[in-house]
Amino acid sequence: MNHQHNSPGDPTTASAALAAPAAKPLLIVMVLGFSSLCAALMQSLVIPIQPELPHLLNTSASNAAWVVTATLLGGGVAMPVAGRLADIYGRKPVLVASAIILLVGSVICAMFSTIGPVLIGRVLQGFAMGYIPVAISFVREITPPAMRNSAVAGISATLGVGGALGLPIAAWIAQDFDWHMLFWLSAVLAAAMVVLSLVVLPHTSPVDPGRFDVLGAVGLAVGIVGVLAGISKGNDWGWSAPSTLLAIIGGVIVLIAWGFFEVRHPHPLVDLRTTVRRPILLTNIAGILIGFGMMAQSIVVPQLLQMPEATGYGLGQSILQAGLWMAPAGLMMLAFTPISSRLLSTIGGRPTLALGATVIAGGYVFAVFLDGAPWQLMIATCIASAGVGIGYAAMPTLILENSPAAEAGAGVGVNALMRSMGTTLAGAVMAIVLTSQTVSVGGAQIPAEAAFRTCFIIGAAAALAGALVVLLIKRSKPESHVVETPENAESHA
Length: 493
Fold this sequence. Notes:
The protein has 493 residues and is mainly α. It is 72% helix and 2% strand. Strands 1-2 form a two-stranded antiparallel sheet.
């Protein structure tokens, strides 16, 4: 079938083609939520040991930095590809495969202490991030209407929760145990994911009988890796260095060529005609900006917490203490799941997403004026994370309401990729700001107080820009106010 001709009002939209609710939907949602959280933990798993990686892996600092970047690249490639595979072959096989890939990657990292195998393992751990967008589209298919918004909100929030909760857990393990225990823990979690996904998750029929676009997947992977690698390593390589320019410009050229290929393909990996529809396009742009807003605090606040008190503005916290001060922010995202669900049901996805972005900005504004104590930064991150929880719940809802059923998984995967692009941009921009305004302490150059406040202001501006973009999306009725039938499916578009 050539699904390029579906329109938002067609009865084949995802919101009109939901499967019959599964038996034991709460148990299924709990398994999907637990597994998504485990996959998301991989984002921050090695951050506490990042300064020690050159010594631990007997390699250079530039090589060791790829241990963090590799997972980012793997996730960026996997999310849209896994979503499309799930549309074609069914959700459960892709979810189980993602869990197995995480298990294999974790065991490889746990068994070796050299850079090569660890990088391979970290790429595989990144591929497992494809579990999350597939889980989001899956719960929308198999949950009853009363649970649907809560389930989507909870699983979508795991993208942020996993990164936040991973910091204190990883810091504690790195401080008290051998660093390999980080990966043995992730292997145990992955094994649990495999078993639970196999035993609990129901098998549902594929939503698209089309073929998988292998060449499109390769082209997208090459383009994404080029752009993300260039952005994430630009500060280390130098923004005008040939390697940086080659990676970014080459990646963009590949993505442009990939776009021309996709619009002519009968079964594209990503249907760009759907992607450029106004609601989906603007939601994805907002995803970049809100992803930027989420990540900025995760980069800046731990550094400020760990700055020496001798600077006059540093808070002198250990890695573990900094992680513990950040942990409530992750819990805040989870706590806002029922609130996000209620907002989606009463006011709809568009105002909910705009509200979430505005709350994120409020957290950064708080941090600009109150950053003199760890508890103040904890409050600021909790406010911002409440906004992330609201926003991350609304984004997949908007995507699914405006995507054909045959492209639901791929659509959510592309949105997750856009959020990942935002977090990558945040890392690059924050690094530029923190290294451009420095002071000398004990002969070492460290970020100045003004640099941290500039980062907070940039984070607030990005989130507010996301809110403004969202307000350009066409108004639609809240889902709970519309009976799901083919006749009125148009109202969701």
